[in-house]
């Protein structure tokens, strides 16, 4: 009897890597597994190295994917197969998405769709996996079940960490015993400057590594009018702020982000879903 097809979505964070190890170890004989990682071109180098290390250590056979954005109207985003060595690192993949669809922000949530979801589904179609014929394993934990898709059964989404009661604390303890780790601080995240980060995280990063914001500054300068429906320029950050606006605000007194400080409840800590990783199917 043929095995059920399972797509294992690896985002580059420690949670999804833990899930990949759990699924491979405990369900490897049950499913025909394809593991994929979608590179946006704005991932931290530590993220790329971590995915590569997990792949090599655990035999995940990760397929490295990038968006192949067709600039023509009405043409969907395809995929390119790359590798750790050839993965885009200068942001040109991300820029191709912005050039067509405009700057992503709270009102335009297309960056994950075009840079992760579309390349993955395009690749799976190319190997004969049609929508609805396979299950997708997603690295959402038991302590973040609010991120689960309410239609997960119909979409054939599987949350093995929720099923096994795996929380962030359990994952942190497990990784503390391993020979290697992601090596990123909580506020850094996988995507260098993700607009979904809290203001406190952004302001802290703007003090620590201001150079990572050169890319969003350039994108706003070049593409702010792409996709504008009211004649006003788009910007990347909450409340209609540009990257330069964020820099100006970061100069005001504030308390820098403290890792594992879960009691912060101020306005600077409002988020839009960016934790330690950005799941394509969350």
Topology:
Blueprint: E1 4-9, H1 14-27, E2 31-38, H2 45-58, E3 63-68, E4 78-82, H3 92-101, H4 111-126, E5 135-137, H5 152-155, E6 157-158, H6 160-163, H7 168-175, H8 199-208, H9 214-223, H10 243-250
Can you walk through the features of this model?
This protein is 35% helix and 11% strand. It is built from 10 helices and 6 strands. It has helices at 14-27, 45-58, 92-101, 111-126, 152-155, 160-163, 168-175, 199-208, 214-223, 243-250, and strands at residues 4-9, 31-38, 63-68, 78-82, 135-137, 157-158. Strands 4-3-2-1-5-6 form a 6-stranded mixed β-sheet. Strand 1 (4-9), helix 1 (14-27) and strand 2 (31-38) form a beta-alpha-beta unit. It is globular, with a radius of gyration of 19 Å.
Low-confidence stretches: none
What is the CATH superfamily label of the largest domain? HUPs
Major sheet: 6 strands, mixed
Radius of gyration: 19 Å
Structure classification: alpha/beta
Name the helicity range. 25-40%
Q: How would you classify the quaternary structure?
A: single chain
Give the CA-CA distance, first to last residue: 32 Å
CATH fold-level label of the largest domain: Rossmann fold
What is the general shape? Answer: globular
- The second-level CATH architecture of the largest domain is 3-Layer(aba) Sandwich
Quote the average pLDDT.
Answer: 93
CATH class membership of the largest domain: Alpha Beta
Order of helices and strands: EHEHEEHHEHEHHHHH
